[in-house]
Amino acid sequence: MTYASPRFHRAARPALALAVALLCTVAAPASTRRPPAVVVTAVSDYAPGRYTGKLEPSPPHADGNPGRAVIISWPGRAERFVFSHEASYCPLFELPSGAAMANQFFEGNLGEAELMNQFGRRERNSFVDVMESRPDRAWVRWTYFAVNQNDDTVPRLRGTEDYFAFPNGLVLRKASYTSLLPDQPIGYSTQPVELFGVAPVGASLADLFTRDPAHGDYRVLAAVDLYGEGRYEIYWSDDGAVRRVGDDATLAAISRSRGFALVLPFRDRLMFAVLGEASGFPAGNSQLIDHSTPGAEGGAGWGVGRWDHWPIGWLNSQAHNWKPGSPYPWSFGSIGHFLVPEGQRIREFWKDYSALCEDKAFNRWTEQRVFGVLMGHARDWRDVHRIGRAWLDQGAACLQPDTVARLPESREP
User: Fold this and answer.
1) Average pLDDT of every residue of the chain
2) Would you say 111 and 122 are in contact if contact means Cβ atoms under 8 Å apart?
3) Which whole-number Å values give the CA distances from 6 to 10, 13, 16, 266, in the listed order?
């Protein structure tokens, strides 16, 4: 069911679709009603990362409704999947602590256009529609226009992302985009996925992650090969040092696997995002890049990358580095996934990345694809492998939403 008629204002469409879907559920005969296992709710008082400060007066880009969000929840389970206005509706898979995982979106080539800027958070440039709200499935569509931070009169591309949530606690992301400047490199995207986390107000690394007993630092990001033994881990220390377990060759081998998972190893659960060849990411066109570790191949060398937020909207074009004692949530990252032409790699980030963005044929190739990502949480690393492989082993069928409903449950710890 679709309730996206153009006669309704974008800001009203999600609420309308939700109301109609819920009305249909309530009107069903009592004998056919089932307790909902997945619920979609529109709220007007949400703030990321347990932020409780004032949201008013809101910044000009907030459309006067910074607390708006559409939330997918599972009755009896504490995690939530949140499309927050102040995060440009980029969804956050949120744990009870307020810690969350995000996978970003189609950022325009050369960093020229994105969503985390003063224009990208306007409802006209980023909005969600509740397409379906059934007891056994929720479907939310996120549509956005990647725009320049200084001017949104000429959007660079239009992204369309469908999210399907099921009683097993898993969420399927299906993403594609259309160039709105087909003759220019900035009208395309080579980066559909980047692993970021969100930390709640006042949280320290020790609150979020387990301390390594030998080194005294914290494992904050990881990439694992689902079809081999490869694992690449990034550790941060309280004094700003970065350590990695694994080298450039390890991360390159994981990139070329049939399937891999990007993981935020929070204390209470492992939050994961799975992608692979079967879900639209050919091994020969995939490169994972560690932006945290100085000197890592292709990386930007951010070090301990933490950004402060009001409550989240300053990232990226209005970036504010995190400061101790901040009253705001903060985000951190990242391991980025980049699409690259067959046989090419990004070795020096800006030099090589800029060059591949000029490849017209490759740009058109990225525009013509649908990319699938499976998101969830797990008790341990074996569960990440178990769920991820069960999904990818279905081949191209893994992009069909109903196949996700039959996967093993993302279990409580």
Assistant:
1) 88
2) no
3) 8, 9, 13, 42
